[in-house]
Design goal:
This is F-box domain-containing protein. Helices cover about 40% and strands about 5% of the residues. The protein is mainly alpha-helical. The longest helix is centred in the last third of the chain and has 12 residues. The protein is elongated.
Length: about 120
């Protein structure tokens, strides 16, 4: 005896629309997003909003490196930002002075091309 069963077609990851994939990725922990981003080019592209949602630049050297090397389009996804403008060379005995103009210029360089930088808290 043969019984026919009708089951709903199953969806695969590849068949899901990008919006659904993004929704799933947003639920992942950052370490899991980083792992997912290494799978292939599409996974990396889908991971960019989650990878750049929160940024910590913990010294002036990190701010400078970000301003010089990061694709400014990625900063459009940033919703939480921590910036410290002290130098990593600072010590209790010999604080390293960083010119306020240099800091200001770095901030301008960092966010001048970020379309959503005005929405940062």
């Amino acid at each position: 005896m043969h019984t026919s069963s009708t089951s709903a077609p199953s969806a695969t990851w590849l068949s899901l629309p990008a919006e659904m994939k993004l929704s799933v990725i947003e639920q992942l922990e950052l370490d899991d997003v980083k792992t997912f981003a290494t799978l292939n080019h599409q996974s990396y592209a889908l991971s960019i909003p989650s990878l750049w949602r929160s940024i910590g630049l913990h010294n002036i050297e990190a701010v400078q490196a970000c301003a010089q090397t990061v694709n400014s389009e990625y900063l459009a996804y940033t919703r939480h930002l921590v910036i410290c403008t002290k130098s990593s060379k600072d010590t209790l005995l010999t604080p390293h002075k960083v010119d306020a103009q240099i800091i200001s210029q770095l901030m301008i360089d960092l966010f001048s091309n970020a379309p959503n930088s005005n929405s940062l808290p």
